[in-house]
Amino acid sequence: MSLGADLGPPEAPPWLFAPRHKRLFIGRRGLVASTASSLLIIGGLVAVFFLAPGSANVRYYFFNPHNMWLSFVGDPAQGLSSVGVGLLTNIWIFMLSEVLVLLFGLLIAWTRMSQSPVLTPFRILSTVYTDVFRGIPILLVIFLIGFGLPGLGLGFISNQSPAVYGCVALTITYSAYVAEVFRAGINSVPHGQLLAARSLGLTRPSTMRRVILPQAVRTVIPPLLNDFISLQKDTALVSSLGAVEATRAAQIFNSTNFNASGLVVASMLFLVLTIPMTRFTDHLIARDRSRRLATT
Amino acid sequence: MSDCVLELDRVVKRFADNEVLRGVSISLHRHEVVCLIGASGSGKSTLLRCANLLETIDAGSITLFGQSLLDPRIDPDLVRRHIGMVFQSFNLFPHLSVLENILIGPVHALKRKRAEVHDEALVLLERIGLRDRADDFPDKLSGGQQQRVAIVRSLAMRPSLLLLDEVTSALDPTLVGEVLDLLRDLAASGTTMLIATHEMNFARDVAHQVAYLDQGVLVEMGSPEQIFTNPQHEATRTFLERVR
Predict the structure, then answer these.
(1) Residues of A in contact with B109 (CB under 8 A)
(2) Could you report the per-residue pLDDT of A82-99, keeping only the tens digit for each?
(3) pTM of the predicted protein model
(4) Is B62 within 8 Å of B70 (Cβ atoms)?
(5) Contact call for A214 and B110, based on CB within 8 A
(6) Distances from the Cα of A161 to the Cα of A86, A196, B64, angstroms
(7) Is residue B216 part of a domain?
(8) Residues of A in contact with B83 (CB under 8 A)
């Protein structure tokens, strides 16, 4: 018998047909199947919710429209702060933190990757910093800052509002994460780029600024936005210091009126903030992916 | 001796306990083209990088225009502005247009006026027939075009010599010709070049000197005639037979 695939043409097409079970959900039947399974699963979950023995209670306790509205707008007469207004506190906390995190994170990444002998102590410090603050639960950092700094009796530093301390704590923790994101981004730029830039006689800082960073930014943006999304949610933890933001306002409403609808309102408000960001991040990731697939 | 541009003397380079260059001496004179040949891993690329101070050497000396580059007062950035380097993988900056790739060195390293360099860059692009691609990004160009832009990018620095590291090895075979033609032009106009290459016919045509490297040792060096038709060493002969 000769070596090679000279067996001649097969007799009839059925050779190439997929087995029946593989053909079950092709084309229109696939659409029908996906619709049916979606209806079944989602409908099932909704049914469980409504048919559960305590369903009416839960619906009243968490989803009461009147209380939801009341918690959203607040009631000064009753001494109730509004969840909606509270959210503004969350917003300025994360906006301020995000700006500080960007600056501080880049600074830490930069010192950690620097090669200047003068910066050696800072290089060690920034390494320790990223290790320590990625390792401590953020709630503990908030407590340590929020109760520690006022205790120091340092005038201006010790006389800030809980929201400010929350902001500081979030910045400290998230800078450690973001510094690592920056470092990974910088390391993702091919070494040849550095060689090419240096061999043109560009200095190290100039190479960083004009060649490495512009390329690193593209890979850094999606993970950076991911960190910002969790930062936005973690502003809720600042409530543990007594800052009246959305979560805290909802808790107060709950303990005054014995109704948790405020918590649902707060959750929904957070979603309004984070979902556009999540969608945008996914869009960027998908675009980056298709661009990379197109070039290779 | 006065026209000696670059001189490497008994250069030794180790990576951990792997000795990549074992005392290589080579000199390059004005308007001279020297081709380095040898198998992959023989130390050709490392030699070029050492000449450019992209690697620090462990022993020996490197001299540029009679000035030792191991002198602690030397600024490597200033040295590299006189030495053009072209890489196997082009290494164009993907976030910059073709024109900006060419401008970045003269404008930001040499601090020359942008407008002035801009015109020069267009002339250079004209010369390689890519003037109409000035505003394109590198990934829109073929490999051969990218490599020619990379060569022009280093020429825009008006270097005293060019180091070329297997510049056609990453190219589709049909694109090798256009890059080699450009190098032939440069050689004909007197550009001083140290070229690591696997293109034996090219080396034979343009080189004034051919050096054969084997495992970090410069086995022999001589005119192309001598190396290709009458190699003195067994190792050179074996290598040439295998690449032929």
Answers:
(1) 200-203, 206
(2) 999 999 999 999 999 999
(3) 0.79
(4) yes
(5) no
(6) 15, 51, 64
(7) yes
(8) 199
